[in-house]
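TEACHING EXERCISE
Course module: macromolecular assemblies
Task: Read the component lines below, then compare them to the predicted structure of the full complex.
Student: A.B.
Group: 4
Components provided:
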Amino acid sequence: MISLNVNGKKYKVDVPDDVMLLWVLRDHLKLTGTKYSCGIGECGSCTVHINGKAERSCTISVGQVKGKKITTIEGLPDSHPVKKAWVQEQVPQCGYCQPGVIMQVAALISQKPAPTADQIISKMDDVICRCGTYLRIKKGIQTAVQLTRREVKK
Amino acid sequence: MNTTISRRSFLKITGLTIAVSVTPFGHTILNASEKKDLKTFNPNVWLHITSDNKITIYIGNSEMGQGVLTAQSMIIADELEADWKQIKIKQAPAADALKSPILGAQITVGSASMRGFYEPLRKAGAAGRTMLIKAAAETWNVPESECIAELGTVKHEKSKRSLTYGQLCEKAAKLQVPQDPLLKKESEFRYMGKPMPRVDVPEKVRGKAVYGLDVNDGNVKELKGMLYAIIARPPAYGAKPQSFDQKAAEQVKDVVKVMQIPMGIAVCATSTDAALKGKDALKVQWDKGTHPDMDNAYIEKLMMADLDKQGAKVHEVGDARKALSEAAKKVEATYFVPCVAHATMEPMNTTAYVQEDRCDIWSPNQNQTACKGMAAGITKLPPEKVHIHTTFIGCGLGRRAFTDFVPEAVIISKTLGKPVKVMWTREDDIRHDRFRAPMAHRVQGGLDAQGELIGWSHKTSAVSIMKPVNPKAIKDGVDYYCLWGLWDVPDSPHWNTRIQYEVPNLYIEFLMADLPILCWPWRAVQNGPNAFAIECFMDELAHAAGKDPLEFRLQNLKNNKRATRVLQTVAEKAGWGKPIPKGQGRGIAQHACFGTWAAQVVDLSVDKNTGKIKVHRVVAAVDCGPVINPGPLVEQIEGGVILAISTALKEEVKFANGGVASVNFDDYPILRMSEVPEIEVHIVKSTDKIGGIGELGVPPLAPAVANAFFNATGVRIRRIPLTPKTVMDAMKKT
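Instructor-supplied answer key:
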């Protein structure tokens, strides 16, 4: 049995240590917002937060994340500035890569000191969007940074 | 093709008067019309109005990010005069009534969702509105002409009375469905042509949207006890398994069954992880397949050698040979476009549950008609017992219209009597893709003494798309699917998908490359590779004629008004003819297909030390006739441009030892964010017939890049992708 802390909930899962976190999230916990696409950490579709940092769940085994705080797209509040910006800017097309993209942006945006939109954009070359929404992702990042600043001011 | 719909064909198309029972798929599996105690008004296959004043619209085309759920619903809602807030939109099951009137199947390809359904959906909405007005008029005993429909309510101004659509639905349901209802005037449009947020966006952002791969016993309760299957597939074309270690696979914890099926060896387990481990444990030994020597060089050499052979005549106007022999100047060029993969972010997959009396398929597919036919064939169940639940699609690009990912799940589920999800790994997805068909072209053109284009002879070799699938589609040795953009059959449902220039002497010849590679439409189909040859060659001709590439094109478009207009628009917006930054090159190209005209201007620079090309800006213009939802239209062009830059600069499927050598995103590179240029999209206003938009961003881009590269360097590269190595090799040669 492996104990996992996902989106603030405790789970016990009967799987070997070497199973990739991605499959445990999807098959066992039914948290299918985290996507499989490449399985080798090349595309970013499976990105989740592990202790607040964006990580590729397709190449990290559950054995490595015991006792760590895991957040998936389902655990990121709907009022999160990145999610809000993504709806406002109509970023997704097919949307399959977007949970991973959103998680990556959300992790970058929460870094201290707060990065600028351009600093975040410069760190997005390790995600792939096949529909070609890259320009919308850029817009989404700019809007999310603005929304975050506004929230901080409040 | 004439889209005027006769009374009879409208009946056939819209399913008017046919009561259709639907079981939608979505994470809220609820059909408003199936709720107890609710009256339903269901005048056609799309529209359900219930007495709780809710409107449910079922859409038969697949949603893959192009916004079809929203756009088609906007058309119905507009003509219905519904309040957008009262509308729920659902993906429909497979139904004959939802077959495209122009394509003859329920299939989402050919940029045809608007082309095929614009008029039927308008009529469907208008029929509903007309009947609701009539129901209100009868209730109040007033003339229909005194009643107006507005935002989900019918009003009688004189008596200040009003009834909601929900209140009227029971009565309206008893009325006869009008076959030719009065449509709105354009000035009365409430939704069409105005920006509408896409309905699928919020759930996609929340991570709640259910794609094919997400279907499981958590969101579909019938799938309790489901298995996960991974299939070991042949590494080379035609390879057969010689041996495999079934026991080792079965010994992997949670593996339930190992079985050989026509597609390979399937490992079924209670989790994806176990199935993956079981597949690795199989250690399958395969034979060498049918073409063990085939690699990229083999393919290109064979196709180039084809160009020296006699092909099948496709089209002839005038006498191209004579015109070329009499030309003051003759230009000849050879082009090559290699295979590219669909590489959709969601790999192929399907979940099937075959029971004695029914078969359910959950699949991210673009072709419900094929899914249903295949499943009925395997299960021997009558088609009405086969239920297709189309999920959200993690990028389509045409790949999912070829539903080879469906039968294997059906076969396994039928054998085991359990629900089964088959997932293709990324490696399976790339190696067993059906690629954009590779093409070799040899084009000869003749100019007279004034630099006028007088003759064009075009020979092309391609891997046939239809030969392995539907050989009957090949007419006298010609696979027109390979020729779209260059030529097409008369009365084609793909509207004007051919060379746009008026060439007085034109000859087109086709050869089918004898290769085992499997190919299939890939966004824009062969419009991409054909536009590459045509538009690069036009640039070469312009140069030979000593004319500006824009002027030369306009001159040879002669009376082609829509092509002329998009070219003029893009030229004006991009500042064609004005100075560009030092070190940059600028190229232009146009193309028409699927009833839409498109043109692009590309600005780029070349790093002469590394050969790396940087695209700085793409300006695009499109004329697709009426616009339904402007936001997604622009997104489609942007996305197409970005995809096409990826293929123009980076993508090429690698082959070795008779199979596909590319396996994943590390060796099949795809454009990344920092490589994306500024993109401007200009919509050319037009009242012409509605055209497609999903694929139009692709064709003009690659030739515009190659032409801009020539403009920057004076060097012609007649092959994509323009990788740093290709660029350096070409620059060294000159």
